[in-house]
Predict the structure.
Amino acid sequence: MKRLILVRHGQTEWNAARRLQGQTDIALSDHGRAQARALAPMIASLGPDHAMTSDLARAAETAILIGATATPDRRLREQALGQCGGGLIADLPPEDYRGWRAGQFTPPGGESWTEFRARVGAALGKTVEQAQATALAVCHGGVIRAALDALLGLPPSRIVPVGPGSLCILAFPDGPASARLEAFNLRPGTVDLDAPD
């Protein structure tokens, strides 16, 4: 049975401020680096044999800190947020933020949920296909929401934010169309019920 481990990068200063990053290339904070290092033993115990990472610095550095030799793939970048990129969540109209989280609102100049979901689904399908048993993708919270929609049919409106420095695991017991959620928002030693986007 194949598995896919989805790791959200560690925290950045923008995450901590609840600022939407989108494809802005923000580095990890010291706390984010510590989160990534804490994930390393969990990742090692799962033994991924194929690894990909978003090419954005926060994901690529997380991949290094968890001990993964990962190939960068632009398709694993966060959703392009257009005019909302860099904005504080608190400054957005609440209906726009809720609509964006649900995959129903495209920020002006941004990438639609349909485009984003298709990009992520194609990248992760290829990643799983190339793995012998366990694939690893180091990416972003939005990418994980898009993966759960594309691979499980779980719409983003039904998913809480994925915490920085956490992992999710999908299992494929009977091939690509049989995806099942095995773990969600898992971190060593803690539960985060108020994770930032």
